[in-house]
Design brief:
11% of the residues lie in helices and 39% in strands. By secondary structure, it is mainly β. It has a single domain, classed as Immunoglobulin-like, CATH 2.60.40. A hairpin with a 5-residue loop joins strand 4 and strand 5. The longest helix is centred in the C-terminal third of the chain and has 6 residues.
């Protein structure tokens, strides 16, 4: 899988769907291409955000539920690309944001047993992209 970050934007929320007080939603627009030979499922847990103080942020499912936010997750067939936005809730003062993309996270976590050889054939290192804020 390859990842391209096309840009970021902030989302204020709509009606009752809003970030918690003192926080903001940061949406990262991505394009993901399946360079493999078989279909691949891309879960939301493949994405994580980190700030300059090493605080980690998971995907905000609440922000992802907004009608104007299309996530790039789901099945991607070989050679196909999927574009969408991944939303994170971060403090308004968060700086130095980095996106971590681990497309094989579920397989890598399952292969952490000594008897498994899957980890030697998988790339378990995340792709890290610095986001300009």
């Amino acid at each position: 899988m390859t990842l391209t970050v096309n840009g970021t934007r902030e989302h204020q929320g709509k009606r009752v769907l809003k970030p918690n007080k003192g926080n903001k939603w940061v949406l990262v627009n991505t394009t993901i291409v399946n360079r493999g030979q078989k279909p691949s499922i891309l879960p939301v847990v493949a994405f994580q955000l980190m700030d300059s103080a090493n605080n980690q942020y998971e995907v905000s499912l609440l922000a992802g539920a907004l009608e104007d936010v299309k996530t790039p997750t789901g099945q991607i067939n070989p050679g196909a690309e999927q574009q969408g936005e991944v939303a994170f809730e971060v403090p308004e003062k968060a700086k130095g944001l980095k996106l971590f993309f681990s497309p094989n996270s579920s397989e890598c976590n399952a292969s952490n047993t000594p008897k498994s050889k899957a980890s030697s054939t998988l790339n378990c290192e995340p792709i890290v992209v610095n986001l300009e804020q």
